[in-house]
């Protein structure tokens, strides 16, 4: 029970990496607040947790909306009394050539991938500071570490998350709140399906071509990294980057 007596908020917790992490957190003893803009998938994830005796709450949540973040903070405190872990997982993915990026599309992606993370830290980290302990995990990407054609928009958002993580870590270190970023490569989720369709390569081809380990990552492999960062086992890690990419950035 590596998260026993901890309360965790997971954005985008209805599907993919978010859902897998929510299930793993609950099995490790955490009380989980799942937020998602999709009520159906978010509520279904809560039911899956409750089915094995875990505790979970669903809050409909647009991460780009500050009032929604205030609601998430209030409902978490009102229901569970505290918050120990925040996994800023929600995000969207767009592959598009630089000259074809429209300002509206730029603003929409940035509002979710960057503003959503900023608002989460703004409203949740002060609550953690009051108890002098907490762990924030921000979902960046290897696109926030290395360049790739068609990734100016997405890469800019994930690079911003990487640096915001370090800045927030320095600001809150004295309050006992840790902030780290994770940097996955392609994981076998809907985003990998989208990449496959957009590039014309199968997911198997993407795995073999991009990653020395020869395959895509699994949601469980990412969830286990997030679990480590959420737990006290990572108590001396803050402002750091944790890469989960099958060796891609080592090339």
List its salient traits.
251 residues; alpha/beta; 7-stranded parallel beta sheet
Broad shape: globular
CATH superfamily: NAD(P)-binding Rossmann-like Domain
Q: How many strands, what sense, and barrel or not for the largest sheet? A: 7 strands, parallel
Q: Give helix % range.
A: 40-55%
Radius of gyration: 17 Å
Order of helices and strands: EHEHEHEHEHEHHHE
Query: How far apart are the first and last residues' alpha carbons, in Å?
Result: 37 Å
Task: Using the coordinates shown, work out and report the CATH topology.
Answer: Rossmann fold
Number of helices: 8
> What's the overall average pLDDT, rounded?
98
How many separate structural domains? 1
Low-confidence stretches: none
User: Which band does the percent of strand residues land in?
Assistant: 15-25%
CATH architecture, by name, is 3-Layer(aba) Sandwich
* Number of β-strand runs: 7
The CATH C-level name is: Alpha Beta
Strand order of the largest sheet: 3-2-1-4-5-6-7
User: What would you call the structural class?
Assistant: alpha/beta
In short:
This protein is an alpha/beta fold and 251 residues long. 47% of the residues lie in helices and 15% in strands.
Describe the structure.
The chain is 47% helix and 15% strand. It has helices at residues 16-27, 39-51, 66-80, 103-130, 152-172, 190-199, 203-210, 219-230, and strands spanning 7-11, 31-36, 56-60, 85-88, 134-139, 177-184, 241-244. It has 8 helices and 7 strands, in the order βαβαβαβαβαβαααβ. The longest helix has 28 residues, at 103-130. The chain is globular and about 50 Å long. The protein is of the alpha/beta class and 251 residues long. The protein has a 7-stranded parallel sheet with strand order 3-2-1-4-5-6-7, sandwiched between helices. The chain has one domain (7-250): 3-Layer(aba) Sandwich (Rossmann fold), CATH 3.40.50. Helix 1 packs across helix 8 and helix 3 (66-80) packs parallel to helix 4. The relative contact order is 0.14.
């Amino acid at each position: 029970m590596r998260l026993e007596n901890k309360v965790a908020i997971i954005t985008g917790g209805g599907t993919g990496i978010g859902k897998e992490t929510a299930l793993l957190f609950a099995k490790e003893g955490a009380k989980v607040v799942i937020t998602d803009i999709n009520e159906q998938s978010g509520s279904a994830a809560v039911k899956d947790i409750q089915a094995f005796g875990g505790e979970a709450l669903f809050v409909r949540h647009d991460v780009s909306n500050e009032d929604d973040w205030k609601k998430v903070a209030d409902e978490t405190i009102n229901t569970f009394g505290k918050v120990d872990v925040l996994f800023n997982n929600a995000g969207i993915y767009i592959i598009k050539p630089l000259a074809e990026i429209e300002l509206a599309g730029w603003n929409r992606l940035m509002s979710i991938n960057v503003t959503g993370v900023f608002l989460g830290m703004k409203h949740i980290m002060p609550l953690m500071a009051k108890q002098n302990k907490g762990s924030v995990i921000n979902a960046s990407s290897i696109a926030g570490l290395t360049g790739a054609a068609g990734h100016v928009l997405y890469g800019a958002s994930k690079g911003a998350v990487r640096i915001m993580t370090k800045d927030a870590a320095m600001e809150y270190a004295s309050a006992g709140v840790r902030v780290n970023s994770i940097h996955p490569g392609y994981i076998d989720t809907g985003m990998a399906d989208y990449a496959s369709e957009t590039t014309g390569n199968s997911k198997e081809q993407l795995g073999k071509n991009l990653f020395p380990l020869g395959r895509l990552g699994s949601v469980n492999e990412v969830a286990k990294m997030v679990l480590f960062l959420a737990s006290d086992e990572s108590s001396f890690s803050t402002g750091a980057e944790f890469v989960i990419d099958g060796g891609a950035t080592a090339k």
